[in-house]
Design a protein that fits this description.
This protein is mainly β. The chain has one helix at about 85-90, and strands spanning about 5, 15, 25-30, 45-50, 55-60, 75-80, 85, 95-100, 105, 110-115, 120-125, 130-135, 140-145, 150, 165-170. The strands form 6 sheets. Strands 5-6-11-10 form a 4-stranded antiparallel β-sheet, with no helix packed on it. A 3-stranded antiparallel β-sheet has the order 8-13-15, with no helix packed on it.
Amino acid sequence: MIQTVSAAPSGEFQWNWGDTGTTEGTVTFSFTATQGSLAESTKTNFDIVVDGQGPYLQSLSARADTILGVAPTIQVNFNEAINVGNLTLFTTPGFWAVSFLPAANGSFIVTNVALSADGESVTLTGRPLFDYMLQGTQVTVLFGWVALMQVEDDAENLFNATLNFTTGIVIP
């Protein structure tokens, strides 16, 4: 798998692993070292994560809520944890839109956007006295991403703007 290895007297090394065909995922490497008459070192493992895909909206969960009740919420999940450079812009409610099919089975104007501590989801909050969602209704969330938000994953892949919506069904 590894095609070439070079090492400096200080112990630093470089390697070329060639074309492994690995496009996404985690690759585990194991290394040992020897020098002169010294015994071979204990094997050391480490992982390299190959990530070339940007984060995107993956799913949502929404619970039925009646009009005049508490403020309804929708949790929107990303495919992986995200980092946000401009949280003020990212959490601006106007960049998030909710629609229902059929339209009469729900009303939801986003009033608050909260990013989870782990960066894997956002919670959208609607209006407490006016918004509602009926069980069994299809709900779609659209994220109006703009580059100034600086949404990326740990590998610094930018948000995938072509996958900026997700759908689900309102559950009881």
